[in-house]
Amino acid sequence: MSLTKAREFAVLCILRTHSTHGYAISKALSQGPFRLLGLSRASIYAILERFRNRGWITATKVDGDAYPDKEMLALTQSAPKQDDQVAVLDALDFSTTPLMALTLVADSGADIPPHVLDRLISARETELVVWAQDHDHHDTHTMRLAAGVLQTELQALRSLKND
């Protein structure tokens, strides 16, 4: 999955939970772990424009009182359904699935099929075994960082599986 697709997933997941406006999406995705996606306000509005062109969202003007009017955005019937998002994740090569995209889908209320989680857990466990046998790099900063990231991903995947 490309970074572009992961970013679109993030915006789609927020819209799936509730109707909102672009600024609120921008604010939500600029905080906490979502900042790792590197979404600027301009890139969020570009994603929203793509969604509008695809017919995935509608906009309704809302009086902003003392502030400028806002457009409340809502998903249309033609927007991908949660099951469609899960199917996309299921079809991806496990080595390219950004874990953030998977957790966003789960956080939007979708159930991740156990076989998808099992496959991702197995792949990461295998990778850790392979890395443990790499005696040329086992004591490097890079390997320690990569192993730590992989172990953290395993914790997150196991947590998703147990939820």
SSE layout:
Elements: H1 3-17, H2 22-28, H3 41-54, E1 57-62, E2 70-75, H4 82-91, H5 99-107, H6 114-132, H7 141-162
Helix pairs in contact: 1-5, 2-3, 6-7
| Contiguous runs where pLDDT drops below 50 for at least 5 residues | none
Kindly, what is the distance between the CA atoms of the first and last residues, rounded to a whole number of angstroms?
A: 24 Å
Number of helices: 7
CATH topology of the domain at 1-79: Arc Repressor Mutant, subunit A
Order of helices and strands: HHHEEHHHH
Q: Provide the CATH architecture of the domain at 1-79.
A: Orthogonal Bundle
Could you report the average pLDDT, rounded to the nearest whole number?
Answer: 82
Q: Decide which structural class fits the backbone.
A: mainly alpha
CATH-assigned homologous superfamily of the domain at 1-79? Winged helix-like DNA-binding domain superfamily/Winged helix DNA-binding domain
The description of the largest β-sheet is:
2 strands, antiparallel
How are the strands ordered across the major sheet? Answer: 1-2
Q: Radius of gyration, rounded?
A: 18 Å
The number of E-state strands comes to 2
Strand-residue proportion: 5-15%
Shape: elongated
CATH class of the domain at 1-79: Mainly Alpha
What does this structure look like?
The chain contains seven helices and two strands, in the order H-H-H-E-E-H-H-H-H. It is mainly alpha-helical. It has a domain at 1-79: Arc Repressor Mutant, subunit A (Orthogonal Bundle). A two-stranded antiparallel sheet has the order 1-2. Strand 1 (57-62) and strand 2 (70-75) form a beta hairpin. Helix 1 runs parallel beside helix 5, helix 2 (22-28) crosses helix 3 and helix 6 packs antiparallel against helix 7 (141-162). The longest helix has 22 residues, at 141-162. The two termini are 24 Å apart. The mean pLDDT is 82.
